[in-house]
Amino acid sequence: EGDGNDDYQTGFRRSVVWVCPNGEEQQYLEDDAHFLATLQQAFGTRAGTFTAAGRRGAYPLTRVLAKSQVDGRCVIMGNAAHTLHPVAGQGFNLCMRDAHVLAQMMSAQVLKGDDLGDSQLLKRYEKARQTDQKRVIRFCDAVVHGFTHPNPVIKLARNVALVAFDKLPNIKPLVATYAMGLKS
Ligand SMILES: Cc1cc2nc3c(=O)[nH]c(=O)nc-3n(C[C@H](O)[C@H](O)[C@H](O)COP(=O)(O)OP(=O)(O)OC[C@H]3O[C@@H](n4cnc5c(N)ncnc54)[C@H](O)[C@@H]3O)c2cc1C
Questions:
Q1: Over the chain, what is the mean pLDDT?
Q2: Ligand 1 atom closest to residue 91's alpha carbon, by position in its atom list
Q3: How confident is the model over 76-121, as pLDDT tens digits?
Q4: Ligand 1 atom closest to residue 80's alpha carbon, by position in its atom list
Q5: Ligand 1 atom with the shortest distance to the CA of 79
Q6: Ligand 1 in contact with 83 (CB < 6 A)?
């Protein structure tokens, strides 16, 4: 239902990804009223008043990094190679950059008439992707720790950073450029 918020439009369905400590999810799954009330409190009324909840599911978020992404003529990519916390929405972007680099290397290999599955080529791909992958993994870890750290000083620094992010001109395009992997 509307609450006078100018941006609000009635009849909207919304989906939400909610990250919470282990064990807390059970009460959100089982109890619609509790879920709606807690969500409303956490989210505020920017999207109006939440009146009904749909089907919900929960699963643990765990960082999974393959020890090796290449073995012989085989490459693993995407979540199989690096499953990241979705906090910064970086996982799929990273997969696309991996795929782009591999495609470029393979195209060059085809033009030379060489073997596409050559293990040296695949090893070079793995090495070429290390810097970007490590950068994104470090960034996601830092954001997760920044948002969950109980230390009040770190909480204060995080809140100041969020306000600065919202208010300072030019900072959002800069962060977006970094997040898209266009700047390291
Ligand atoms: C809540 C959330 C929000 C996200 N938001 C963003 C975002 O905003 N931006 C972004 O860049 N990234 C985001 N990501 C990350 C993104 O979803 C992943 O990086 C991307 O889905 C990885 O694609 P994938 O194909 O490698 O793996 P998946 O999407 O995990 O696909 C693997 C598929 O294989 C299937 N499968 C698994 N095991 C087997 C088996 N044994 N046999 C047959 N099939 C199997 C699975 O069912 C699944 O369909 C988000 C992730 C989550 C969880």
A1: 89
A2: 19
A3: 999 999 999 888 889 999 999 999 999 999 999 999 999 999 999 9
A4: 26
A5: 26
A6: no
Tens digits of per-residue pLDDT, 62-73? 899 999 999 999
Q: Where are the domains of the chain?
A: 1-60, 64-148
* Torsion angle in degrees (nearest 10) through CA of 120, 125, 128, 134: -120
Question: Does the beta carbon of 165 lie inside 6 Å of ligand 1?
Answer: no
The pTM score is: 0.81
Residue with CA nearest ligand 1 atom 28: 79
Q: Domain 64-148, what fold? A: FAD/NAD(P)-binding domain (3.50.50)
Question: Does residue 6 carry a pLDDT above 60?
Answer: no
Residue nearest to atom 27 of ligand 1 (CA): 79
Question: Is the confidence at residue 162, as pLDDT, over 70?
Answer: yes
Decide: 181 in ligand 1 pocket, CB within 6 A.
no
